[in-house]
Write a structure and sequence with these properties.
- The chain is mostly helical.
- The chain has three domains: 2-78 and 336-368, no CATH class; 117-323, no CATH class; 379-449.
- Helix content is 82%, strand content 0%.
- The chain is built from 15 helices and no strands.
- The protein has helices spanning 2-40, 47-75, 82-140, 146-166, 177-222, 227-250, 254-266, 278-310, 325-331, 337-368, 373-376, 379-394, 399-407, 409-436, 439-449.
- The longest helix is centred in the first third of the chain and has 59 residues, at 82-140.
- It is rod-shaped and about 160 Å long.
- The two termini are 62 Å apart.
């Protein structure tokens, strides 16, 4: 039973030998084709030079893969020692690493290179979108101070109007020094309000330009066609958007508000009281001191609010770094695991066949080793053994003498030649005897005798 199973396994190995070679050739060719497609994306030069360089490299890869796995399939299954198996496994691991280094990543670039570049562009768009939004928020943050500035300006203006009409502050109506001071403070607040409103239009215009650039970049990411020209145009749009973001960062009115707030307190100049009576002059001085305290408080509030705006993190300058398909699949390898698995499987699938052959040959050896020699010998080997026995018998030597002659190197060749000559004579005699049994031959011989 064991001999029959072993024979079937041997027949199976012989039957799949052609298929194994064909599979190795097809896999090596497929790897070479995808290696060629991936190599073209990283080579520079004229189209002719790139074509021939990629062809030569891909052919070298195909031949190397086919030769490596052919050697492994031929030798590894027949190595039985543990040391030899360990050495061959180390060689196989080193070869697999080399194959992945020179072929698998280019195969992955051919399979998913365009998608990886598109993902790189998509993530770049998201980063630029975040930069534009942050720069816009920093630029319009100062506009949140506009209501406070408007209220302060209106308060000074109203106080000036009330003082002019009813003299509620100094007790004397008319446009005196207090009215002039309140009108001056109101004018400064109005000027600051105008600066903020003017920056609002500029910020809105820059933000609209940035939105258009982002829209064009998103269109390039999702557009059909070759990724190369789209990536070049995307780079142009990215440079333009970087300029818009920088302009937004420089358009913030917060530094101007901070300086204006300091000027309110430091540059406060009260007019000389113009009252005719000493009592009116005293009342004017008291009102001016009150206005000065109010202006100082307003200055501190504006300075604090401006400092909070200025303390926000600024938007750093972002540079778009283009990636080739081969570089993109390495950068975003975790997002393209199926493509990497397919690319590596093309190169390392022959290793599975090598291990299958090793298991089959190991099973054959385990089934044949316990059997005696008489049960393992084939018909052809039996016929060869009989011929050797007849040759030894014809030479007049016993089996022991023939064995001893084989153990002596100086006489083994001569004895072997004598045995061959004797064997040839025996075969000639046998042929003669067999021929003499033919009736026609016997009549010819009897006729010759007569």
């Amino acid at each position: 039973m064991a001999l029959g199973a072993s024979r079937r396994l041997q027949d199976g190995v012989v039957a799949v030998e052609t298929m194994t070679r064909f599979a190795l050739a097809v896999l090596a060719l497929a790897s070479g084709v995808y290696t060629y497609l991936g190599a073209r994306t990283i080579l520079d030069g004229s189209p002719t030079a790139v074509f021939f360089a990629a062809i030569i490299y891909s052919v070298s890869v195909s031949v190397g893969i086919y030769a490596f796995w052919s050697y492994m399939a031929r030798f590894y299954p027949h190595i039985t020692s543990r040391t030899g198996r360990t050495a061959m496994l180390a060689v196989m691991a080193a070869g697999a690493v080399m194959i992945m280094a020179m072929s698998s990543w280019l195969n992955a670039a051919a399979l998913a290179g365009s998608s990886a570049v598109e993902q790189h562009l998509s993530e770049t768009v998201e980063a630029y979108t975040a930069d534009l939004d942050r720069a816009h928020q920093n630029a319009i943050a100062a506009q949140s101070l506009l209501p406070d500035i408007q209220r302060a300006g209106e308060r000074f203006s109203q106080l000036a109007g009330v003082e002019r009409q009813s003299g509620s502050l100094t007790g004397t109506t008319g446009s005196g020094s207090v009215v002039q001071l309140l009108t001056q403070m109101s004018a400064q607040m109005k000027s600051l309000e105008g600066n903020i409103n003017g920056s609002r239009e500029q910020v809105a215009d820059l933000f609209e330009q940035g939105q258009k650039r982002l829209e064009a970049m998103r269109g390039l990411v999702s557009a059909p066609g070759d990724i190369g020209p789209r990536a070049d145009q995307f780079s142009t749009e990215a440079v333009a958007l970087t300029g818009v973001v920088s302009s937004l960062s420089q358009t913030s009115i917060a530094p101007s508000i901070r300086r204006a707030a300091d000027d309110l307190a430091i540059g406060f100049i009260a007019p000389v009281p113009d009252g005719a009576a000493p009592d009116l002059v005293n009342r004017q001085n008291q009102v001016m001191e009150t206005v000065k305290a109010s202006v100082s408080a307003q200055s501190k509030a504006l300075a604090k609010a401006a400092d909070e705006i200025l303390s926000r993190p600024t938007v750093g300058e972002r540079r778009f770094v283009p990636l080739s398909p081969a570089g993109a699949v390495l950068e975003y390898a975790g997002d393209f695991i199926p493509a990497w698995a397919g690319a590596i499987s093309i190169d390392l699938l022959p290793g599975v066949m090598v291990f299958i052959l090793a298991v089959v040959h190991g099973a054959i050896r385990r089934q044949e080793d316990p059997l005696p020699f008489a049960e393992r010998i084939t018909a052809a080997e039996l016929l060869q053994a009989l011929e050797v026995q007849r040759a030894v018998s014809a030479s007049g030597m016993s089996v022991e003498q023939a064995t001893a002659a084989m153990e002596k190197p100086e006489t083994s060749q001569e004895d072997a030649r004598l045995a061959e000559l004797k064997a040839d004579e025996v075969k000639a005699d046998e042929n003669t005897n067999i021929t003499s049994l033919d009736p026609k031959t016997r009549r010819d011989r009897s006729h010759e005798d007569r």
